[in-house]
Amino acid sequence: MKNRLEGLLALFEKDPKDTFTAYGISLEYLSLKNYAEAEKYLKLTLENDSGYVPAYMQYAQFKEKLNQIDEAKEFYRQGIIKAKEAGDKKSAAEMEEFLDELE
């Protein structure tokens, strides 16, 4: 896993605006339970591309794990809006279900 993370970090150095790379780095840090770095790269993902729907779901689930429920709900809400704007009905429905479970 470290090799994959190192590879992604090298790619990110070359192109720090690459949404997919930033998102991949966040997932690697989440799997390593390095939550501070994971959150840093989730934020970067959304700063680089506020319409990147998977990041909203991942960020919401991350906040749930940290028991930051209000923040998780807000990421689900934002993600639902972005998913609907993108015509991604499946992701919108999934996040609506997760949000319903929290409310």
Which helices and strands occur, and which strands form pairs?
Layout (H helix, E strand, L loop, with lengths): L1 H13 L4 H13 L3 H14 L4 H13 L3 H17 L3 H14 L1
Structure description:
The chain is mainly alpha-helical. It has 2 domains: 1-49, Tetratricopeptide repeat domain (Serine Threonine Protein Phosphatase 5, Tetratricopeptide repeat); 52-103, no CATH class. The protein contains 6 helices and no strands. The chain has helices spanning 2-14, 19-31, 35-48, 53-65, 69-85, 89-102. α1 (2-14) packs antiparallel against α2, α2 (19-31) packs antiparallel against α3 and α5 (69-85) runs antiparallel to α6 (89-102). The mean pLDDT is 95.
Number of strands: 0
Largest sheet: none
Q: End-to-end distance, in Å?
A: 35 Å
What share of residues is helical? over 70%
Give the helix tally: 6
**Tertiary shape:** globular
Order of helices and strands: HHHHHH
SSE-based structural type: mainly alpha
pLDDT under 50 segments (min length 5)?
Answer: none
Whole-number average pLDDT? 95
Radius of gyration: 14 Å
**Count of folded domains:** 2
Strand content: under 5%
